[in-house]
Amino acid sequence: MKVLYGILLVLFLVGCSYQTPVNNNDNNNIDDNNVVDNDMDDNNTVDDNVNEIKVTIIRNDLVSPWGIDELPDGSLLITQRKGQLLRLDGEQLIEIEADFSMVQVAGQGGLLDVLVDRDFEDTGYVLFTIAQNTGNTALLRARLTEDNQLEDLEIIYRTLPEFASDNHFGSRVVMDTEGNLFMSTGDRQVTSNRYRAQQLDNGHGKVLHMTKDGEPVQGS
């Protein structure tokens, strides 16, 4: 078998070493029509302003802003990682009254993403992802009242097992076309926990598909 490998290797090298001779005279047969004209017409120059991105700063006094979503009335809900939920209505910045005492504000942890329920006008629901002080990434749901308070705050999903780390909580939450949720979670950074991202018996390092009640979507 080794002899066969040796023969094949020799044939391969011989094949690689064979090259078609180059006819130097071919360089003299270039069609003038294929020559690139460097004297471009000014009308062909690229307009640098065509794809210009205009940036408008509407607030510069936020502290560690993390998530943002729009309410039906056009105002914006903004999370600040250290545990504040703000509502930007025109130029007015309002702090929403909420009990986020379960939020772990350390390292990369805190109050993270925010998502306004597509059916907000009927349900009043707003969802949040947080780093929970028990060592989890959690998904919260609450009702936002007209007087800017959060009521009926509840945890509808939390990653298990609990794991002590201040980093890589994730987390984003979005709604699909069926009204269900996709939520991402982090691997918690620590080497001893990262392997869990490749296993299906835990909530670390995953993209989770769930209902608005935190239950698995059928077929996920």
CATH topology of the domain at 67-210: Neuraminidase
Number of beta-strand segments: 11
CATH architecture annotation of the domain at 67-210: 6 Propeller
Q: Could you give the order of strands across the largest sheet?
A: 1-2-3-4
Helix content: 10-25%
Task: Please state roughly what percent of the residues sit in beta strands, choosing from under 5%, 5-15%, 15-25%, 25-35%, 35-45% or over 45%.
Answer: 25-35%
CATH class of the domain at 67-210: Mainly Beta
Gyration radius over CA: 29 Å
- Shape, please? globular
The string of secondary-structure elements, in order, is HEEEEEHEEEEEHE
Describe the structure.
The protein has 220 residues and is mainly beta. The chain has a domain at 67-210: 6 Propeller (Neuraminidase), CATH 2.120.10. Helix content is 11%, strand content 29%. It contains 3 helices and 11 strands, in the order αβββββαβββββαβ. The chain has helices at 2-17, 120-123, 191-194; strands at 65-70, 76-80, 84-89, 92-95, 111-116, 125-132, 136-144, 150-158, 173-175, 181-184, 207-210. The strands form 3 sheets. Strands 1-2-3-4 form a 4-stranded antiparallel sheet, with no helix packed on it. Strands 5-6-7-8 form a 4-stranded antiparallel sheet. Strands 9-10-11 form a 3-stranded antiparallel sheet, with no helix packed on it. A hairpin with a 5-residue loop joins strand 1 and strand 2. It is globular. 24% of the residues are buried. Residues 1-22 and 24-28 have low confidence and may be disordered.
